[in-house]
Automatic annotation (TrEMBL):
Top-rank taxon: Eukaryota
Keywords per UniProt: Chromosome, DNA damage, DNA recombination, DNA repair, Metal-binding, Nucleus, Telomere, Transferase, Ubl conjugation pathway, Zinc, Zinc-finger
Domain RING-type, first and last residues per copy: 188-229
Family: Belongs to the NSE1 family.
PANTHER family cross-referenced by the UniProt entry: NON-SMC ELEMENT 1-RELATED, NON-STRUCTURAL MAINTENANCE OF CHROMOSOMES ELEMENT 1 HOMOLOG
Swiss-Prot/TrEMBL catalytic activity: S-ubiquitinyl-[E2 ubiquitin-conjugating enzyme]-L-cysteine + [acceptor protein]-L-lysine = [E2 ubiquitin-conjugating enzyme]-L-cysteine + N(6)-ubiquitinyl-[acceptor protein]-L-lysine
BP GO terms, sorted: double-strand break repair via homologous recombination
Gene3D superfamilies on file: 3.90.1150.220, Winged helix-like DNA-binding domain superfamily/Winged helix DNA-binding domain, Zinc/RING finger domain, C3HC4 (zinc finger)
CDD domains according to UniProt: RING-CH-C4HC3_NSE1
Gene this chain is encoded by: Nsmce1
One GO CC term on file: chromosome, telomeric region
GO MF terms, alphabetically ordered: ubiquitin protein ligase activity; zinc ion binding
Organism for this UniProt entry: Leptocoma aspasia
Protein name, UniProt field: Non-structural maintenance of chromosomes element 1 homolog
Entry's transmembrane regions: none
Length: 232
């Protein structure tokens, strides 16, 4: 019954519905969707007001412990949007979709990825875990199928047999990862989002996403660390 400062229109509801059904939406698609929803419902549209539009939705989602969050792809630096349930942990978020043994495989895969030096885990290393699970042993063929489902559901990304966390996973589980991997999880020094794939300063230890590194050092003849000023 809380009275919100800004009324949520049908355009806002339509935008939220599509975002929830997609799981995650790339920035340019979100901008097109914003325009489409506003024009369809004949409400004011401004191309540079997407963040304000989302803020209005978030003010209405707050009592439901939900939020539309923005994150960047660690691969190319493009913005993405996902609806996050703030009341759920990683376990309860995925528990309705996966069995206990599948969740254990996911957690162990996440361990490999986050504890690695480059933010990736090979399919060989992941499949070697299949017969070491505490819930029960999993055949490698079965594990391969489960990994395929995690990729389809946008929890993992795969390239040439190497797995990393999908952008959706990073957006939704940022707080979980930061609190459960405190010794190794770090935020990007430039965009301040969780960095799984990153370059790290050998001197002071700060990390930056690869797209953020490229953007930050563009045009600099001698790249230096933004924190300690040592040569990058």
């Amino acid at each position: 019954n809380t009275v919100m400062a800004v009324q949520m229109t049908d355009a806002h509801r339509r935008f939220l519905q599509v975002l929830m059904s997609n799981g995650i939406t790339e920035g340019s698609e979100a901008r097109k969707l914003h325009q489409h929803c506003c024009e369809t419902d004949k409400v004011y549209y401004a191309h540079d007001k997407l963040d304000d539009f989302i803020s209005t939705i978030n003010s209405h989602l707050q009592p439901l412990f939900m939020q539309i969050r923005k994150g960047i792809s660690e691969d190319d630096g493009r913005a993405h949007y996902a609806v996050v349930n703030l009341a759920e942990t990683e376990v309860t978020k995925m528990a309705s979709d996966y069995t206990e043994i599948e969740l254990e495989l996911f957690r162990k895969t996440m361990d490999l990825i986050i504890l690695s030096e480059n933010g990736f885990a090979s399919s060989t290393d992941i499949l070697n875990l299949a017969d070491q699970l505490k819930t029960k042993k999993m055949k490698k063929k079965e594990a391969e199928q489960v990994l395929k489902v995690f990729v389809e559901d946008k929890w993992l990304s795969e390239k040439n047999g190497e797995y990393t966390l999908h952008t959706r996973c990073i957006i939704e589980m940022e707080q979980y990862i930061l609190s459960n991997y405190q010794d190794v999880a770090r935020k990007c020094n430039i965009c301040h989002s969780l960095a799984i794939q990153s370059q790290v300063c050998e001197s002071c230890g700060i990390g930056m996403h690869l797209p953020c590194v490229r953007k930050y050092f563009r045009g600099q003849t001698e790249p230096r660390c933004p924190k300690c000023n040592e040569f990058w």
